[in-house]
Write a structure and sequence with these properties.
Globin-like, binds protoporphyrin IX containing FE, 2 domains, about 150 residues
Length: about 150
């Protein structure tokens, strides 16, 4: 009986340690820092974001949303810097995103489901253009997908 209780207790201890470890990974490194390295770190992500923003603002479906933004290079640069931080942080890099929440940043823009999907298509194109593997494209796509609920109105 005593042995059985000990066995159950050690099982519980092991399970909760595993659960805690998983939780920690989820909170600190949502997708993993190996992905950050494969993307080429901050320089690689900056290149993807440069290309992605260029594709998005030239996309006839999305361009109207950025009509005011593209009038100021400073504003475009600030947007890119924020997206680099957000993406870097999302893939487990050392970047710290300090911009607005996704809800606050997009509130009142009237962004529709189709627009969000198109934004992901354009950014995936930028990932592909920069040699990111289909597996990593899918991982990043899934991470960005989680913002849909806060951005679409
Ligand atoms: C995963 C999807 C998206 C991400 C990660 C994202 C990220 C961001 C970030 C980080 C900012 C800057 C927030 C700040 O200034 O503090 C921003 C602003 C903005 N986003 Fe998004 N966004 C997404 C989707 C979209 C979509 C679908 C549209 C429109 C079709 C859009 C339009 C804008 C506009 C117009 C701004 C303001 C830019 C400015 O300051 O002039 N975003 N977004």
């Amino acid at each position: 009986m005593k042995k059985q209780i000990l066995r159950i207790a050690s099982c519980l201890l092991i399970s909760s340690t595993i659960l805690l470890a998983c939780n920690k990974d989820d909170n600190n490194m949502p997708v993993g820092s190996e992905l950050y390295q494969r993307l080429g770190g901050n320089a690689g992500i900056t290149k993807v974001v440069d290309d992605g923003v260029a594709i998005v603002v030239a996309d006839p479906q999305l361009a109207p949303y950025f009509a005011i933004t593209i009038q100021s290079q400073e504003r475009v640069d600030a947007l890119k810097a924020n997206i680099v931080d957000l993406l870097g942080q999302t893939v487990g890099g050392p970047e710290v995103y300090t911009g607005l929440s996704m809800k606050a940043a997009h509130v009142g823009m009237g962004i529709e489901d189709d627009d969000f999907t198109q934004f992901l298509v354009d950014f995936t194109q930028a990932l592909q253009d920069n040699g990111v593997s289909p597996e990593d494209q899918a991982t990043i796509g899934a991470a960005l997908e989680s913002f849909r609920v806060d951005i679409v109105e």
